Amino acid sequence: MASVDFSHYLTGREAKNKDAQTLMHMRNFDYPTLFRLGDDHPDSPASLAMAFRHAENRGIKEFRVLDYSNSALIMNNDLMETTSYFTLVFTEE
User: Fold this and answer.
1) Which residues, other chains included, contact 16 with Cβ-Cβ below 8 Å and sequence gap of 6+?
2) Distance (Å, rounded) from C-alpha 52 to C-alpha 93?
3) What is the distance of C-alpha 77 from the center of its chain?
4) What does DSSP assign to residue 13?
C-alpha cells in the first residue's frame, strides 16, 4: 500500500493532463520515467515504485483505477490550484 499525492498547484485541466501522463507510465511499469517526472507529477515516485515492484514480484502487471479526483473537481472550480489522487487496485489475471 502507498499513499501518494499526484499533481500539485496546477489548474484542474493542467492536473488532468499531467495525471494522464503519469497514469500511462504507471500502466507501463516505467520506473525510470516516473523518477524523472517533475514536482508537478507524483510527489513520491519511490513509494509508487515500491508498491508496483511488490505487485510485479507477485506476477501482477495490471491494475484498475477505482477512482480519480482532484480538488478542482471536488470544488467544481477548474481554475483553482489542485492536488490530485488516484485509488488503484492491482489485479491478477
Assistant:
1) 70, 84
2) 16
3) 21
4) H
pTM of the model: 0.86
Per the CB < 8 A criterion, the answer to whether 45 and 37 are in contact is yes
Query: What value does the mean pLDDT take over residues 50-54?
Result: 93
Question: Using alpha carbons only, what angle is made at residue 50 by residues 1 and 16, rounded to the nearest 5 degrees?
Answer: 75
Q: Identity (one letter) of the amino acid at 83? A: T
Asked if residue 63 has pLDDT above 80, the reply is yes
Let me know if 78 is exposed, middle or buried by CB neighbors in 10 A (0-12, 13-18, 19+). Answer: middle
Per DSSP, the three-state class of 70 is: strand
The domain locations on the chain are 8-91
Query: Is the backbone of residue 2 left (phi > 0), alpha (psi -120 to 50) or beta?
Result: beta
